[in-house]
Structures are given as C-alpha cells and as structure tokens.
Write a structure and sequence with these properties.
about 350 residues, ABC_transporter-like_CS, single chain, about 45% helix, 4-stranded antiparallel β-sheet, 6-stranded mixed β-sheet, transmembrane, ABC_transporter-like_ATP-bd, Rossmann fold, ATP binding, alpha/beta, ATPase-coupled lipid transmembrane transporter activity
C-alpha cells in the first residue's frame, strides 16, 4: 500500500513538473514529507496493532492467574480459613471407626459446646473420650462434615492455624530427653528463650522440685548428669506447656492428673480453672472431682453419649454419673477441706 501511494505521488509530481507547475525543489520537499508522513502513520498503525495484541495477552494472563488461584485455594492449605470461632462448636451425627477395625469408636455423637464453657468428659477406658477430642483438634479426619466451628466445617480451616490456636495435654504426652526449657516450650516454641514466661508456667503447676541447672537442667536417662522425674512430676511439666501459649481458642486436657494424688490434683486443677476462665476447655478424666466445677458434664459409654448436663441435673437423674460421684465424692470432700480458699 505504501509503494502504491508513493508511486501515485511521484507520477503526479512528474506531471506537474513537466507543466512547470512545480519545481524540482518542491518535488524533493514533497516526496520527503510524504515519506515521513507515511512512516509516521505506519508506526502508529503498528503500535496500535501491537497494543491490541498485548491487551489480548494481558486478558488471557489475567484469566490464567485467576484459574491458578482458584485451583490453589482448593489444593493449598494456605487458601483455607484461619481458625477462629466466636459462638459455639457443633458436633452433628459424628461416628468414627479406626482403620482395620469394624467396631465404631464413636457412634452418632451430637453435642453443642458454647464458647467459653468448661466441659468435663467422663467415661471408662475405651469409651471414646480421647478419640472425640482428637477429632475436635483435627488430628483425626472425618469423611463427612460433622464437626463445625460457628457453622464452618473443621476441614475448611487451615491446619496450621488450627494447631497454633489450640492447646492440648494428652495422657500419653512425650517426655523429651532434653532439658526443662525444651519440655515446657513445646507448648509454644517461640518462647523457648523467654525465661520469665517458662518459669511462670512452672509456678502455675506448683512445681516444687528445685532443678540444679534451672531451666537448662537435663532430664531423662541419656546423660549421666540428667535428672529424672517421678510420674507426677513429669505430668506437671507436661501441664505447664498449656500455660505457655497465649490466648488459645480451645484447650483440651486428657487425664491431666492421673498420676497425682487427690490433694495435688485439686490444687493444680483449681489453678487450671483460673487460667482457663472464659476459654473453651474440655477436661477428660476418670475422676469426678473436676466435674462439679464444669459448666456441663458429658458421660460417654461404648462410644455414645449417655448423659449430658450440669452436675446438679445429673445427680438428680441418678444414673451413671450419680454412681461415679457417689463412689468418689468422699475423696474430694476431704481434700477440699484441706485446700485454702483462693
């Protein structure tokens, strides 16, 4: 197109020169001007075409980015919801069976736990107490939506956020063969070098043992200069891990005082109750000493909830909890007389 235009202009100029209407100088000036104009117009057209192409690529890139982001939300834990809840935990028709076992460990559990409540979970060995709380913590997975925090299924929460905002001490806690510092800081490793925080946690569990090397005292059997602890002392040390984490959304104690005598148990549990006030807390135990101070009591039997209510309500019903309370209450009535009011 440019060649044709140039040819037409040249022919016209040649005709005009022959008729003495245009000089040779005018011819040169016009041809140069036409060439410049054509070049500018060509550049503008090329730039416009290139801009349209880039715009098209930009639209496609944006679409691809959105598709990748959408797929990433499904596959990546970072796309899930940070763990928080403000109202309640709902358990709906929850059943659970361990792999390669035909008998259900939990059967059709339905339960509501309000924010800030202390729930005591009682029952015999194998009744499903520990299984229930591990499901609430997301440590065991359920195939269908049956555990909800403020109506949100537990599997929609980011796992790291869930673990970072909950705290638990299980009956089979690990005795780390390192030092006192490490064993406490397991509750929140960011405080491993915060002596004040770690010592405060020890004081809360009424740890009266004087460690020769303070927080750096080695524990266990690996080193010759290590200090070993009794079962009750290890349990206190494990309990101190709960007091290290700041503002957890949910705290779970699984048989936290099974190796302690009733007097030590009540003293420590009173401190635990003060610390956990207004924090959603689930306390598992064979013993009923803590149950009377709980907001609600849940009694499990063979994987099913057989009773749920307050201490007074369950005493009046005179069923499983009533029998447990009557068989153990003298331990705690005598103990409470020995504990000064706080």
């Amino acid at each position: 197109m440019t060649i044709v235009n140039s040819a037409v202009v040249i022919i016209l100029l040649v005709v005009l020169i022959n008729k003495d209407l245009v000089s040779v100088g005018d011819y040169i000036a016009v041809t140069m001007a036409v060439a410049i104009i054509i070049n500018v117009i060509s550049n503008l057209i090329e730039d416009y075409i290139r801009m349209l192409e880039n715009l098209n690529y930009s639209v496609k890139a944006k679409q691809m980015k959105e598709q990748i982001a959408e797929k990433s939300i499904i596959k990546s834990a970072h796309g899930k919801i940070p763990f928080r809840f403000h109202e309640q935990i709902d358990i709906s028709n929850l059943s659970f069976t361990y792999p390669n076992i035909q008998i259900e460990s939990l059967k059709n559990i339905n339960l509501t736990i309000n924010k800030g409540e202390l729930i005591a979970v009682l029952g015999e060995n194998g009744s499903g107490k520990t299984t229930l709380v591990k499901l609430l913590l997301g440590l065991y997975k359920v195939e269908c939506d049956s555990i909800f925090y403020d109506g949100i299924p537990i599997n929609q929460f980011d796992e790291n956020s869930l673990y970072n905002n909950t705290s638990a001490v299980f009956q089979d806690f690990i005795k780390y063969q390192t030092n006192v510092r490490d064993n406490i800081a397991v509750g929140d490793i960011t405080y491993v070098n915060n002596d004040e925080k770690l010592e405060s946690a020890l004081n809360r569990v009424l740890f009266d043992n004087h460690f020769p090397g303070g927080l750096n005292t080695k524990l266990g059997y690996i080193d010759q200069d290590s200090t070993n602890l009794s079962g009750g002392q290890w349990q206190r040390l494990a309990l101190s891990r709960v007091f290290v984490k700041d503002n957890p959304e949910l705290i779970i104690f699984d048989e936290p005082t099974s190796a302690m005598d009733p007097l030590s148990e009540m003293r420590i549990l009173n401190e635990v109750l003060r610390y956990c006030k207004n924090t959603t807390t689930i306390m598992i135990s064979h013993r009923v000493g803590i149950a009377r101070k709980a907001d609600k009591i849940c009694v499990l039997q063979q994987g099913q909830i057989v009773e749920f209510g307050t201490h007074d309500e369950l005493i009046k019903s005179k069923r499983n909890y009533y029998e447990m309370w009557m068989s153990q209450k003298e331990w705690y009535e005598d103990v409470e007389d020995k504990i000064p009011a706080s």
